């Protein structure tokens, strides 16, 4: 018995008619109605490269938080941040953190590194063969770089890391990718580089795979935390004692004590980072702005550090070592996603670092706001008022 296949139009599969045909098919198969799924305002002809079997849309509530004051090298000024979410209280909490940091003078942001990877693996008859291959790779980096960059205008091969294990050598190709996230760009460039290697290496290579999983694409890893995947961006601020007291009803001492207790609890639980809830802000901004939502898996990793200053104020910083964002390509050009990017001045060429700084500052605001709500025992009451737990 064969299952019915989802219908396609070979001549033009990205049209209102093709989408309607699929909705009718699903309605018949699922005995359901797709009335809202079929309500959208953009032209399906813009979707090749973004989705297959286009049938309609899933509408996500969108709210703006802010204004957020950023003191960055790429983002400088006040921004209203689009956040797509179904979690009540989230936009309000981030807005509260944005008010606190705005009155403290703004969040300082710095992009300190930028790299995207593909990580092929080569196998040899023994470990010495792998070692000799690694030496040859180092000697021929310029030629490998030239071969890789024949496939892209904006991608640049920065360096190749080497990791030996057993009789294999894992190569981690690091690229800068301009304003694109760059995973596919790096895959294509690395494939070209590997073909050049296979054609020119004088020794015998037993086996090779384009991905040996040391790029840990769409997975968290300690290697990416240390070496960066995407943008490594740091957001920091010093919060005056009086502001914490007046706006958050807490003190630097209470916030710091909670941070230490939280880090110990996370250590015992085996948590992979010490942030409070960076995935909340990152996921909601990613959905709103057309980022690859699966990249939340890497991007949410955060390194939080706090101090009570000699003056009695509260220094707080968030480092995002693997923030993968794009201002061009992928889903950023879709109708509503582009509008959200444009509302922050973050669409198009030269804007990816600006977007990264805004996202990092947003994460910091959410971390401070939730941390203060827990310390001041307002966490539950705020969810009762605004969230799913309301009576």
Structure description:
Belongs to the HMG-CoA reductase family. Pfam families: HMG-CoA_red. The chain has 391 residues and is of the alpha+beta class. The protein folds into three domains: 16-46; 62-113 and 230-386, 3-hydroxy-3-methylglutaryl-coenzyme A Reductase, Chain A, domain 2 (Alpha-Beta Complex); 120-209, Alpha-Beta Plaits (2-Layer Sandwich). It is 40% helix and 21% strand. Strands 1, 2, 3, 4, 5, 6, 7, 8, 9 and 10 form a ten-stranded mixed beta sheet that branches. Helix 2 (90-103) crosses helix 12. The model has no long low-confidence stretch (mean pLDDT 94).
Defining traits:
3-hydroxy-3-methylglutaryl-coenzyme A Reductase, Chain A, domain 2; Alpha-Beta Plaits; 391 residues; ten-stranded mixed beta sheet; globular; alpha+beta; 3 domains; 40% helix
């Amino acid at each position: 018995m064969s299952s019915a296949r989802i219908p396609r139009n070979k001549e033009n599969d990205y049209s209102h008619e093709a989408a309607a045909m699929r909705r009718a098919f699903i309605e018949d198969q699922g005995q359901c109605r797709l009335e809202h799924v079929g309500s959208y305002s953009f032209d399906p002809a813009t979707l090749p490269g973004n989705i297959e079997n286009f049938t309609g849309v899933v509408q996500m509530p969108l709210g703006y938080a802010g204004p957020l004051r950023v003191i960055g090298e790429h983002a400088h000024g006040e921004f209203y941040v689009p956040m797509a979410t179904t979690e009540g209280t989230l936009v309000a909490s981030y807005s509260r953190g944005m008010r606190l940091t705005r009155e403290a003078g703004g969040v300082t942001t710095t992009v300190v590194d930028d790299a995207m990877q593909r990580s092929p693996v080569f196998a040899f008859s023994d470990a010495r063969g792998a070692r000799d291959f690694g030496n040859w790779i180092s000697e021929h980096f310029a030629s490998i770089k030239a071969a890789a960059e024949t496939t892209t205008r904006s991608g640049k091969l920065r360096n190749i890391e080497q990791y030996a294990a057993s009789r294999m050598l894992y190569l981690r190709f690091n690229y800068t990718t301009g304003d694109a996230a760059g995973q596919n760009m790096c895959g294509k460039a690395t494939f070209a580089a590997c073909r050049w290697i296979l054609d020119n290496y004088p020794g015998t290579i037993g086996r090779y795979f384009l991905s040996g999983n040391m790029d840990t694409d769409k997975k968290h890893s300690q290697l990416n935390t240390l070496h960066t995947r995407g943008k490594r961006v740091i957001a920091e601020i010093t919060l005056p004692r009086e502001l914490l007291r007046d706006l958050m009803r807490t003190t630097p001492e209470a916030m710091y004590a909670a941070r230490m207790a939280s880090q110990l609890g996370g250590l015992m639980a085996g948590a992979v980072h010490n942030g409070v809830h960076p995935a909340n802000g990152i996921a909601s901004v990613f959905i709103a702005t057309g980022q690859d939502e699966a990249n939340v898996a890497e991007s949410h990793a955060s390194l939080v550090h706090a101090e009570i200053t000699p003056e009695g104020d509260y220094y707080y910083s968030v480092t995002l070592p693997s923030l993968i964002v794009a201002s061009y390509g992928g889903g950023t050009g879709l109708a509503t996603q582009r509008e959200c990017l444009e509302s922050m001045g973050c669409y198009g060429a030269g804007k990816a670092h600006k977007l990264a700084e805004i996202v990092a500052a947003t994460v910091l605001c959410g971390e401070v706001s939730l941390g203060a709500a827990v310390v001041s025992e307002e966490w539950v009451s705020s969810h009762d008022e605004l969230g799913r737990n309301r009576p």
